TrEMBL record:
Organism of provenance: Pyrococcus kukulkanii
Protein name: Amidohydrolase
InterPro entries for the chain: Amidohydrolase (IPR017439), Bact_exopeptidase_dim_dom (IPR036264), Peptidase_M20 (IPR002933), Peptidase_M20_dimer (IPR011650)
Domain of life: Archaea
Record PANTHER family: METALLOPEPTIDASE, PUTATIVE (AFU_ORTHOLOGUE AFUA_6G09600)-RELATED, PEPTIDASE M20 FAMILY MEMBER
Residues in Peptidase M20 dimerisation domain copies: 178-278
């Protein structure tokens, strides 16, 4: 068999060129028209069978009894880029600040190499270019569109700002967290700031609720488990001398098991409702689980690790994170693994975290991700 690393290195510059092009033209979730058009044009040229799911693409090549799927996400974020680089975002207020431009470019590179060697394929390979990973659950749309039909295993890569450049981080079991969201309106009775006795003040009720929420993780969750409850938005009032009618709270909760997710959800609702009641207020609370935790399958993790080591990649540890990833939806249906590729490079000043206006990736290692995707496809 050919050497995936060597093949990927040959098109290293091409991968960087694609990545820069996508980086300069970021598109938000479900708006990936340009990106997906470019991806589709290449895939057609290389002989893939294409199915469109909105701005998403399902592309097959080869035959055989088993199918391995490789996934990249294509969407950007509503962030104003602050990097001063030749490939800076040309779209005001939009930026590839999570590295999905790199994911698309790496998988496009893999697509090219896989097509060139398609006569050596033992299985069918399916490429999934999905929209709207950032809060849009684009993965669900792709699954509804048939992305997992006939698929036996799935792998996805994410560039990883916590890992040094070139390290492939593979982790068995829970990797990213399940994600929940809550929105609460604590309703009292407004009035004059100097006459609280004639009002029902929702501000102290909201303040107490915020503090009480902190005790879920501190006092109710097993200290050996991981969980987060964050209030990210508090809004109430319009003037210094007016007691407002209501206060709004919005936040997120994170967890690694579905049971804990359900527990956090119900406790958040109970605590806000009852704290409001204690202050003579009323609360309307909505809490939802937006996505499950990302759990890497044991066998598939082992397989990915052995393939990565086999082709000479530097495989290392990667920490769990309470960030979320909609790749979790694929892993609920099909065994697979979500893999991190280190892109942190202090010498180049590439040290900013994901979703930061100065986030960037060390482009010199992107071909390693391509090589791993190619190797997974052929060794499955
Ligand atoms: Zn992100
Ligand atoms: Zn991401």
């Amino acid at each position: 068999m050919f050497d995936p690393l060597k093949e990927a290195k040959k098109i290293k510059e091409q991968i960087i060129e694609w990545r820069r092009d996508f980086h300069m033209h970021p598109e938000l979730g479900f708006e990936e028209e340009r990106t997906s058009r470019i991806v589709e044009e290449h895939l057609r040229e290389w002989g893939y069978r294409i199915k469109r799911v909105g701005t998403g693409i399902i592309a097959d090549i080869g035959g055989g009894e088993r199918t391995i799927a490789l996934r990249a996400d294509m969407d950007a974020l509503p962030i104003q880029e602050e990097n001063d680089v030749p490939y800076k975002s040309k779209i005001p207020g939009k930026m590839h600040a999570c590295g999905h431009d790199a994911h698309t470019a790496m998988l496009l590179g893999a697509a090219k190499i896989i097509a060139e060697h398609s006569d050596e394929l033992k299985n069918r390979v399916r490429l999934i270019f999905q929209p709207a990973e950032e809060g849009g659950n684009g993965a669900l749309k792709m699954i509804e569109g048939g992305a997992l039909e006939g698929v036996n295993a799935i792998f996805g890569l994410h560039v990883w700002a916590e890992l040094d450049s070139g390290i492939v981080g593979i982790r068995e079991g829970p990797f990213l967290a399940g994600v929940g969201r809550f929105l609460a309106k604590i309703i009292g009775k407004g009035g004059h700031g100097a006459a609280p006795q004639y009002t029902i003040d929702p501000i102290p009720a909201a303040a107490d609720a915020i503090l009480a929420l902190q005790r879920i993780v501190a006092r109710e969750v097993d200290p050996l488990e991981s969980a987060v409850v964050t209030v990210g938005r508090v809004q109430g009032g319009t003037a210094f001398n007016v007691i407002p009618e209501f206060v709004e709270l919005e936040g997120t909760f994170r967890f690694f098991t579905n049971e804990l997710g359900e527990f956090l959800k119900s406790r958040i609702v109970e605590i806000i409702e009852n704290t409001a009641k204690a202050h003579r207020c009323r609360a309307e609370v909505e809490a939802d689980i937006l996505g499950p935790p990302t759990i890497n399958d044991r066998e598939m993790t082992k397989f990915a690790r052995s393939v990565a080591e086999d082709i000479g990649l530097n495989v290392g540890e990667v920490r769990k994170t309470l960030g979320g990833e909609d790749f979790a939806f694929y892993l609920q249906k099909v065994p697979g693994a979500f893999i991190a590729l280190g892109i942190r490079n202090e010498e180049k000043g590439i040290v900013y975290p994901h979703h930061h206006p100065k986030f960037d990736v060390d482009e010199d290692v992107l071909y390693l991700g391509t090589a791993l995707e190619v190797a997974l496809a052929f060794r499955f």
